[in-house]
Amino acid sequence: FARQLSHDDDESRDLVQDLFVKIARQPALLQGLRNERAFLLCLLRNGFLDLLRRRQTRGLGVEHAPEDTVPIFETASEPDEEAFRAALAAALVTLPLEQREVVHLKLWEGLTFEAIAELLDLPLNTAASRYRYGVDKLRHRLRPLYEELQ
Question: Could you tell me which residue, 17 or 149, shows the higher pLDDT?
Fold first, then answer.
């Protein structure tokens, strides 16, 4: 999730490390939670948003360019599968951050729209529509490759 947000391997490691340092300093944060994973994802996202605010304050770019991305999927042994993974990673980068994070939380983290809406502090319908728009964009971008692989 950190890689999806930041597009930078070092930055994503720093975000995760900061998250665990925070938990180590305040272990009570994890007590009494219904969904610890969703809470950790929320803390990670908040850390990323803080990073974006600091960048804006310093006049730095808000996001890295798509060519700065790090691989988010493991390499595949099948050439067709590897091509699809690379195309999917490239397509994900083109999504606006709001859609990309919802798509990631739904598809890779397996969260419900209710959990995503709570985590991102959004209305349920907004979370669902961001997912739908993001998946539609991915479908449109990946359709030629999918048809070629068929």
Answer: 17
